[in-house]
Amino acid sequence: MQVLGIESSCDESGVALFDTERGLLAHALFSQIPIHQAYGGVVPELASRDHVRRLPGLIRQVLGEAGVQRPDAVAVTAGPGLIGALLVGATLGRTLAYGWGVPIIGVHHLEGHLLAPMLEPDPPPFPFIALLVSGGHTMLIRVDGIGRYTLLGESLDDAAGEAFDKTAKLLQLGYPGGPAISARAEQGDPAAVSLPRPMLDRPGLDFSFSGLKTAVLHQVRQWTAPGTPQQVADLAASFQEAVVETLFVKCQRALRDSGLQRLVVAGGVGANRRLRERLKQLPAEVYYPRPEFCTDNGAMIALAGALRLQAGEHASPDFCVRARWPLEQLGVPA
Ligand code: KG4
Ligand code: ZN
Question: Which of 11, 164, 274 has most ligand 1 atoms within 8 Å of its beta carbon, as the pocket-test mutant?
Answer without folding.
Answer: 164
